[in-house]
Amino acid sequence: MSTFTETNIYSMPRVYANTCPEAESSSSSSLMLRLEGSGEKPRSEVVHDSSKSYRKGSLTITPVLHPCTESSTRSTSFGAQVDGIDWSRPIPEDIIAQLIEIQDEYAVLIFRKTGLDNNRHVAFSQQLGQKLEINPFFYGRENDRIGDPFLWDVSNINRDGSIVQPNSRRWHHSLGNALWHTDSSYHQERSKYSLLLSHGTPARGGSWTHFADTRQAYEDLPQAVKGMLDDLVVEHDLWHSRRLGSPTIFKEPLPQERATKPPAYHRLVQQAPAQGRKALYIAAHAKLIVGWSYEDSQKLIWKLIDWCTQPKYVFSMEWLDGGDMVWWDNRQSMHRANPYTASMTARDVRRATIIDDGPFAWGVMDQEVAAAKQKAEKISMGQLDFPQNP
Ligand SMILES: [Fe+2]
């Protein structure tokens, strides 16, 4: 990606391939997570490595991605599978507190075969934060496949049970979800956690969600670059990522679509929830660096997304069984889905999204945006001496 202009940015190829497992080469260090003994062998490293497991009370924790630096410790690992929870009854508050601690540390937690249904999915989510996002596409129980305003239908299934067809508006809307993003960064009152639960039986080898570690990626930036990024504010716009995913159909969102989702402003560099670490808060929704031109903004934003999604910061989780659930923290990770394809099989995943109640929940308000604009105008893209991605 060399030249960014308003006219060409949306016509660039930006639909990501199904990188796992098809494009996964044995030389790649991008990691896939699946259970040992699940039958099929993945084409790259099996990272559910029980030799790395440890106990915390009644829970067994297996970290997924280990940083490659010499000074790295378990506390800088990214992603973990957690076993040992009795999902058949409400989760006790002491376990919830433990899980939040583990979540702060790993940013993405994977649970297998939970057996949760819609109600228990929502109930567990409500134990993790006071407010859940209402799905804006919920038009009443009789008009929604799932029938719960707190659950987003991120499946590829229509209300009548058929698979979403190519060229439907829903198909095109979903293409933006295959770009690296954080959920709801386009809301001024953003969300902290997402909990995605699988229903039915996913087709083996066909269903993946990919995660990137925005904390380690920030830490590994050169100090001089960090210094320049620290005060920048980003405008996030859902319709920007929809247009990137589907440039023709979402060239101009419908008036009612635009009205429901105005842009939002958040700091680029933020304090992560625990451990005194910082993280990049970045996503395909990111449209402008406040105070910068559109072209320079996109250049920096995609440079950073590419930086964060180098294989050493990324792992991919395969959906193996109904009841599998992944809970991630949008404030310290990015993720993406595999894109829809004409040959895809049914993938019934439903998401609860928990609104942030931390100190950065409301992002950056008007006066601060104006101040950030003045500061940012003094920095140009050319001053950022960015290391080459491998
Ligand atoms: Fe998402």
From TrEMBL:
One of its GO terms (molecular function) is metal ion binding. Residues 21-49 are annotated as: Disordered. Residues 37-49 have a biased composition (Basic and acidic residues). Residues 76-353 form the TauD/TfdA-like domain. Gene3D superfamilies: Clavaminate synthase-like. Pfam families: TauD. The keyword Metal-binding applies. Keywords: Dioxygenase, Iron, Metal-binding, Oxidoreductase. Belongs to the TfdA dioxygenase family. This is TauD/TfdA-like domain-containing protein.
